[in-house]
Amino acid sequence: MRNFSSDFRRLVRSIMIVTAITLGTSGMVSGQGAPADSTQAAGAAAPAAGGSAVNGDPVAGEALYKANCTSCHAINKRVLGPALAGINQKYNDEAYLIKWIKNAPAMVASGDERAVKIYEEYNKAAMTPFPQFSDDDVRNILAYIQVEGDKKPEAAATGGTAGGGEGSADTGVSNFMIIGLIAVILIAFLVILVLNRVIATLERLLLNKGEAILAEEDEVEEEAKDKFAGLKRMAKNKKLVFFVVLGLVVLLASFGTVEMWNTGVHTGYQPVQPIKFSHQLHAGTNQIDCQYCHSGAWKSKNATIPSLNVCMNCHKYVQATEKYDGEISPEIKKIYTALDYNPETQAYGDNPRPIEWVRIHNLPDLAYFNHSQHVKVAGIDCQKCHGPIETMEEVYQYSPLTMKWCINCHRETEVKHEGNAYYDKVIAAHDQIKKGEKVTAAVLGGLECGKCHY
Ligand code: HEC
Ligand code: HEC
Ligand code: HEC
Ligand code: HEC
Ligand code: HEC
Ligand code: HEC
Questions:
Q1: Helix or strand run (H / E) with residue 28
Q2: Nearest 5°: phi and psi at 341?
Q3: How many folded domains does the chain comprise?
Q4: Of 82, 223, 398, 447, which has the fewest CB atoms closer than 10 Å, so is most exposed?
């Protein structure tokens, strides 16, 4: 019985190996938690406190600058007004700059030489007066401009990283599932191989040992002459054939499932637009506020795409001629053509045609999504759902826009109700209900257009 016991030990060992492999791989499979929320936009970069000769608070200045100046100015680029980097050095006269920023048109009207010169240089475009600013407000803005102007070279280098991983949003069935399936198939193969050995061992044990082994050896010798003996033997092994077929079926089925699962999910969708409009240039480099063009996002269901007249606020003057040997940029010309505008005479014709932007984000009609509920009431950044738009040369769909995506965020996000006008109304209505007073649907927002209309 010595042989039996050694065979038995081999059998036990094989089973242990299979168990270990299976446990190991399945541990790997379940060890993978849900992927971290990749739609989380990177936080806004904290402004660096640069040492500058300007006395003001750049942090306070940043907010004022962004709210009031970015529609016409950029730090390092001419927009409607001049680039503002180095402005403190250019004038080296704080009192003068304060006077200018508080009321530029008055300075021009007063005939101040420097003011008139810059006014002429910028095609007599008037800068908005800011009488509401205190001197300190203006000092803060100047400090911010100083800090930003100083850090330009780095900013350009790091700008691209602000948005974090691009297009990495949840795609439903993850690559991980495919890897898992492949692992399962590999394990199945290993199991067959080991089981085959076990079965062979058991067979040998049961058969008359001597004869069987001799016969087998003869067979082996014969087969050695045949090149494809190995393959033939495998083809005869019904269990092996069965598992190979099973493996292929599982593989095909898993790819099919992934395909079907992602039908109707358009993450990464990036159509070519009729005008090469770059968010990286406008919202990134020139820091034009999203609100300047998509003000609807704060007020209504739709974020809205701006009309070409909004573009003309700048592109009447900004023609990027330096890039095209003095000619007007062909892309900007498309704006003029669409509006039937003649840049020579600065007159509009009577044959305007709208530009047909290709819509990127599109929920099916059965789902209702309201921007202002999320942007204004919940205070969610555009980037949380749309990704690092300010780094996109061409916009692509960043989030999957699936029901799962909406639901997951609703499960995770806490409602900010304190100091929130929307909730003040709700709380007031609740108080009325508690007191037994009459509450109409109108009090609960039943008159808002967006509650009933798409
Ligand atoms: C409506 C557009 C507009 C807004 C808003 C605006 N500016 Fe201007 N700014 C201009 C224009 C145009 C000029 C060029 C002078 C002119 O044409 O009046 C200018 C000139 C300047 C200059 C002088 C630049 C130089 O090189 O001499 C400074 C400084 C300045 N702006 C600062 C600011 C600050 C700070 C803010 C925000 C508080 C601001 N501007 C908001 C349009 C604007
Ligand atoms: C100067 C105007 C302008 C500014 C500023 C601007 N956008 Fe846009 N945006 C457009 C135009 C025009 C389109 C349509 C063309 C396109 O898709 O590129 C658009 C398209 C989009 C789209 C895709 C819409 C669709 O079809 O689904 C999103 C999302 C978007 N913008 C978000 C933003 C965010 C977020 C910001 C601020 C970081 C911003 N935009 C700043 C003009 C602007
Ligand atoms: C607040 C000012 C502002 C607004 C509004 C604005 N742009 Fe621009 N745009 C710029 C600046 C600044 C540039 C850079 C010009 C340069 O490179 O010299 C630019 C560049 C461009 C270019 C690239 C030109 C080229 O060939 O390099 C296109 C195309 C363009 N804008 C289209 C639009 C469209 C379409 C809109 C309206 C949806 C719009 N812009 C609104 C300021 C603006
Ligand atoms: C909670 C997620 C979320 C946030 C936050 C969000 N959006 Fe959207 N956005 C969407 C969805 C979903 C759609 C598709 C809506 C549809 O098809 O009805 C969309 C569509 C758009 C569109 C194209 C169509 C339209 O509605 O006019 C633009 C432009 C846009 N968003 C801009 C913005 C801007 C700018 C902000 C920030 C002020 C913003 N979004 C914030 C989810 C969001
Ligand atoms: C980034 C997180 C986030 C995503 C993604 C998101 N939402 Fe919301 N949504 C919120 C928050 C937070 C509120 C609560 C806002 C408030 O205070 O009323 C909300 C509120 C709502 C409400 C109003 C609920 C009520 O009872 O007043 C609707 C409807 C809604 N979301 C629909 C959607 C749809 C549809 C989608 C997907 C296309 C979506 N949301 C995606 C965060 C999100
Ligand atoms: C309580 C729900 C409700 C609210 C709130 C509401 N509407 Fe309506 N509205 C309707 C219904 C229902 C119709 C269709 C009536 C019909 O076909 O006779 C309609 C029709 C319309 C029409 C006519 C559409 C057409 O094709 O004839 C317009 C325009 C309109 N509403 C605008 C608004 C505006 C703007 C607001 C916000 C100030 C608003 N509605 C608020 C329910 C509402």
A1: helix 2-31
A2: -105, 135
A3: 4
A4: 447
CA of 45 to the centre of ligand 4 (A): 23
Ligand 4 centre distance from Cα of residue 258 (Å): 27
> For tokens 């199991």, what's the residue?
191
| 416 alpha carbon – ligand 4 mean position (Å) | 20
- Give the Cβ contact number of residue 441 at 10 Å: 9
Distances (CA, A) of 390 to 163, 268, 281: 8, 16, 8
Q: What is the pLDDT of residue 9?
A: 58
Domain-embedded: residue 49: no
Does residue 445 have its Cβ closer than 6 Å to ligand 6? no
Atom index in ligand 3 nearest the CA of residue 70 equals 1
283 and 401 share one domain: yes
* CB 163, CB 279: distance < 8 Å: no
User: How far is the first Cα of the chain from the last one, in angstroms, to the nearest whole number?
Assistant: 84
Which of 42, 91, 43, 87 lies closest to 65 in space, CA to CA?
87
In a domain, 46, yes or no: no
Residue ranges of the chain with per-residue pLDDT less than 50: 1-2, 4, 8, 12, 18, 22-52, 154-172
Helix 238-261 and helix 175-206: axis angle, to 10°?
170
Q: What is the pTM of this model?
A: 0.63
Distance 343 CA to ligand 2 centre (A): 25
* 354, 389: one domain: yes
Tell me the one-letter amino acid at 318.
Answer: V
Of all atoms in ligand 1, which is nearest to the CA of residue 118?
A: 15
Q: Is 342 helix (H, G, I), strand (E, B) or coil?
A: strand
Question: Closest-lying ligand to the alpha carbon of 98?
Answer: 1
* Amino acid 121: pLDDT: 85
Q: Which of 155, 450, 145, 123 is nearest to 317 (CA)?
A: 123
Residue 85 within any structural domain of the chain: yes
